[in-house]
Design goal:
Blueprint: E1 4-8, H1 12-20, E2 25-29, H2 35-38, H3 54-60, E3 65-69, H4 77-86, E4 91-94, H5 100-110, E5 115-120, H6 123-127, H7 129-133, E6 140-143, H8 145-151, H9 159-162, H10 165-175, E7 179-185, H11 196-205, E8 210-213, H12 226-248, H13 252-277
Parallel strand pairs: 1-2, 1-8, 2-3, 3-4, 4-5, 5-6, 6-7, 7-8
Helix pairs in contact: 1-3, 1-12, 11-12, 11-13
Amino acid sequence: MALKLMYLTNSPRIAAIAEKNGVDRIFLDLELRGKEARQANMDTVISHNSFADVRPLRAALHKAELLVRINSVYDGTKDEVDRVINDGADVVMLPYFKTAKEVESFINAVNGRAKTCLLCETPEAAEHIDEILSVPGIDEVHIGINDLHLGYHRHFMFELVADGTVERLCTAFRQRGLFYGFGGVGRPGGNVPLPAENIIDEHYRMQSNMVILSRAFCDVTKVSGEAQVEEVFRHAVADMRAYEAVAAEKSAAQLWDSHLDTQARVQKIVEKIKAAKGE
């Protein structure tokens, strides 16, 4: 089964191009509460999108789902949930939760009107995942390895893939029959310390269902004009699907060998980060 590909944008034009070229789900990020403080001094994108973006995105899509990430639980959560569902969200994502009570509050607010997706990205959630997953009404879970690695005081987000943390969580999701995924992935074929091919192998090894396409997959800020954007998406998605076909044919032993290679690559990256920090 091919991975469900998710792409973050608030642009209806880009969303339509992404959908046309094989992206399965458009991801609108409305989370702001506490995010800048958590991800200070990191090379991450903090979106400053608006609730007004939901309707235009919904209107631009014909096949792809629209996922909207709201803020973490607070006294305005019900209002946020009501608005994004009324404006066309197919999936509502809850970020940065720590307790089953928060999840239950979110599930009750959605009340079956859309799919529910939890973004597991705090150590508190990861360490109490069985209790959290016992809450009825959860449809999907995505592991946010960016914030989660910060919470665990790790140097590099993919340490959580190398050390078994992500696998432990994925096993819990699978045992509950949930749809799940983790992290993001760039375009295959890149000359980088941790290639997209290794990450895709890990998704197949852990029987993941979905992944976020990272900035490196299709950075629309580096191309101009819709024709160029469409060309980048067409080739990038084709490259992704072509390598998925390779990963799908790998044996368990081959995927394990890839995992060992990932562990070694992650260790080298961590050593480099530590050296740069003088640790």
